[in-house]
Amino acid sequence: MSTSRRSALQFGGLSLLGAAAVGVPVGNAVRAKAAGTLGKKDIPPRYTRPLPILSPLAPAGTKTLTGPGGSYSVPRYDIVEKESSARISPRFDTRMWTYNGIFPGPMISVDRGQEAVMRVRNQLPAVHPLFGYEFSTSTHLHGSASLPQYDGYANDLTPPGFYKDYVYPNAQNARTIWYHDHRVHWTANSAYTGLAAPYIIHDEFEKSVLPQGKYDVTLVVNDCILDAQGQLMLLDNSHSGLWGDIVMVNGMPWPYLEVEPRVYRFRILVASIGRSYRWTLSNGAPLHVVGTDGGLVPTTQSVTSFRHGMAERYEVLVDFRGQAGKTIELRNLSNKNNVDYDHTNKVLQFRVGSTVTSTENNTIPTTLFDTNEVMTLKRSDATKKRYFRLHKELDVWVINGETWDEVSGSNFRHVQADPGLGDVEVWTIENKGGGWFHPTHIHLVDFQILSRNGKPPMAHERGPKDVVYVGEGESVDLLMKFGPHRGRYMMHCHNLSHEDHDMMTQFSVGMPKDWTWDDNDPVAADPCKWDDLD
Prior knowledge:
4% of the residues lie in helices and 37% in strands. By secondary structure, the chain is mainly beta.
């Protein structure tokens, strides 16, 4: 492992656990009263403000692309990274750095097969006002099978005053994905202070069997810490993780949602930096899991609770039929190795009305048509097995003893795996250490969880995935097929404090071992441009 480190001073004095927290999480979750220094009267009230409903962003225009058949036009979505503010505490405006001035950023919704361009213009300050790093960004559409030059590679940076057009094929089956900043070594800070947003791909089958429109609700869940003036604090416990004492949904602390007495679909994205969740309903009713990171599950999984790590997405149906006039809460039972506070067990309140205005797709389907190839693969299809150990070495988090320093020090040529295009492999990812969990994200591909500690995967994760929760003492076997693109892609922990310090590596797909030129170089193939668009 390279000895050059960002060092423990990278976050300055903000690398301490919150004032009222009681220690590093080991074993079961640590419980404390509060994390920040916000006055008691300024703590956001629970269930007094409505849930902000995220609506799709309209295209701003078109972009002309060139393909094998010639030139063609696709929709273009304009995203501006800029400073803004949010009213988290009722008395303060909290400074944030966001997409289009809102948090979460604008939701993009497309139909499968509709290629699109997302133009990201960096109009942020030259340096981050809270953390002092140069405020370049790299936008990753998490869950998209994008070419390497549009995948948000950590070192493919767009500085303030520049823009980049990201081309997204949107060729995958219906799924809930998201975009967020992926700047090398500062992903946690940028995402925490506002650079995160949902992105939806629809297809005809999903539209025909699952709730749509106002009955299809996206929930972006994260947590934060505020100081006495209502400003964000990044207390990451010496790069172990951030556990806030304020839980927000769609940017609103502890909101409520008025629902009809019918079936609703909730797309739950955990955009937290270090907190995982374990969902349950206060009335004990089941949560019907119909979708995972990579789309619909083959068979609906009905559970009374399930754990949900950072960056994972789960689509669940909640049946409010027969519940008219009742109040039901989505609660968080937490997991091992969190730091919990007085109100982090509360998330969202449902207020069930008495009138149903539409009964379309108002059932709980049992079997769902599966269009994701990875769920049809078998272990015997794999031609190679690989092993990855997640652990801590000295002051950094590593994968097989290596950090991103090995990648950057090799001029971005070093890889830990080199499958061929179309190869099927089994990857074993193991976390032998206690006290930590690692939600591990593999770019480009969806995978099937074959086993967890030699046993079948948990019920809720029996669908296509791109993030796997690897708890302490856990070992998971993942089955995946590599494609559809050649090039270099990242793999990392999505506890973003771990990723930044320094649990990230890369693999290549379809690249010869002695390659001298990469048509899809993630940095050089289509770099950012000076922003003279206005």
